[in-house]
Amino acid sequence: MSASSLAGRLGLSLKSAARIGEATGVVAGTGVGWLLGRRPPAPALLRQTFERLGATYIKLGQFIASSPSIFPRDYVEEFQLCLDRTPPVPWRIMRKRLREELGEDPSRLFAWVDSEPLASASIAQVHAARLPNGDEVVLKIQKPGVERIVATDLGMLALAARLTELVNPAASHASVAAIVDEIRTSMLEECDFRKEAENLRDFRDFLVRTGNDEAVAPRVYPEHSTRRVLTMERLYGAPLTDLEALRQLTPDPEGALLTALNTWFASLMDCRQFHADLHAGNLLVLEDGRVGFIDFGIVGRIRESTWKALFSLADSVPRADWVATAEALATMGATRDAVDTRALADDLAVLAGRLDSMDAAPPADGGEDRELNRLLMDLVAAGRRHGIRFPREFTLLVKQFLYFDRYVRLLSPDLDLMGDPRLSALPSHG
Asked: Which sequence positions are flagged as catalytic?
């Protein structure tokens, strides 16, 4: 091993050790606060600690918030408050990062880059830019040291999970280590922007393959993209829930909604993964009337067993046949015993009534809709009471359907999300 290689490894080891020390200090500080009487409820205490620990734990908090099939209800609810907004890294540091990744000074590659970020999150921040040919783009730049911090933190969590299972066999039954492995895979993928670029290209190829010219996703500029930098076409538009802005862009907001729904339903069948985070900010009506799908960092992959259940659900839900719906759900998740489908059907009927009465308007603060999340958790809790543990991709799908239900009630109240003939791409038995 060369001296430079040895020095590099030693440097990484020292940085990892420093990170372990930093994390230990945060946890110790939380413990001291507890002893001094600062004792919020356990879920709130854990969320606050996660936010102080930084990138990995903020993402872990968001994973908890989106996984009611795995984590207890009070923790899922609390982590809805775990916002992925962090102070921006100064441009001089991000500029250096950009130069290191692209191999040239940004001034040679871009006609202009805005030093003020459009957004700053735990893993990356986004800057507007313009290419020499005039193309408007956005630069998603990973913050320095994030990947190392994530790898170190996740290594610690994986070790802790396995030690927990050795000491407490009940934890093994609950698959703690398997859950940590799933989180690890998901987060390391999110740190590799090549994965998001691949998701974008896959979706764009799907649009071309299906002759869909009414929807669009940002073009990726591979010559200006790496593992830690993603350069994408900038799309200008209005969120699907901003009615005032929407009416200035299209005379047919309902038509835009139908395009969005049909495109997404078709992508379930024709793409390797589906967009799993189409909240209003990631679904735009553009200035030319097309529907724009953005931010492909969170995607889901559907297993065969989930597909079969979805076909049954597409048939039973429009008919309000809650017994058949319960039978479909029972085939999807891992069950301890035979499921009392009639009792589960009664629970589903109650949840359907709550969905009908839910407010269509998005939350005023632009954050997660707590009512929507509560409904999702109640569905998962109903399944759990009857011995069903749903796969995570199902809860992602259900949450997306709940988002769509809100858009439908806002833009097209007469549209039947599960049975309208205008939704030509809706999965069916046929």
From this structure: 277
